[in-house]
Design goal:
248 residues; two-stranded antiparallel sheet
Amino acid sequence: MKKVGHLFVVRVIFISVLFISVCSIVRAEKQKKVLIFTKTTGFRHSSIPKGVRTVQQLLSREGIRSTHSEDVNLFHQDSLQQFDAVIFLSTTGDLFNDKQKLAFQQFIRSGKGFVGIHAASDTEFNWPWYGRLVGAYFSDHPEVQEAHIEVKDSRHLSTQHLPKIWVHRDEWYNFKDLYKEGLHILLNLDETSYQGGKMGKFHPVAWCQKFEGGRSFYTALGHTDESFDSELFQKHILGGIRYALNIK
């Protein structure tokens, strides 16, 4: 009788270990992975290191794996396929050759995600496809100052935690070539609350869109180190990343 009981216990332990192992494998297979890309060939923001650390910490807490790199050679079909989304964190200037551009397009068209933070709109001015992906191009900005941001969609993952009027200190971009068609505006800047706005009542600073099979999210915020200390901004970024990854 003792032997039968012992065998039963062994079987239970074996089945439990097997179940845990299978669950771990399934979880690993479903775990998302993103590329944090910070290559610059123009102006380089001093806040990039702080931004990278903050985003990495946010992703780690969510169980999302991340790789940080400035190597454009990762923009190859074989290399990009390991990622579920790419984050352009204050990239600037022209970055890619024609083959790398094609690989990036194929990546998005395969259903993957893109997140642009701040100077991602100051990137690849001579590549119209990228302009449509990010949603607009940077034009100019006044000095860093506090402003009021109007939340236009309080149900989105990136804004559902925000007050209706968000008071935030940052560098406020004016945009050109804003691709309005297809953009879902999330945040709009109140130009009466600061100095230097040139876009009038319609001054979006965060938006998202479904683009050529993939998903794109952009936020103009994130110029200063201090902005990445803001819990509201951190949740804003994380919500945008979750949207790009199609995680609800």
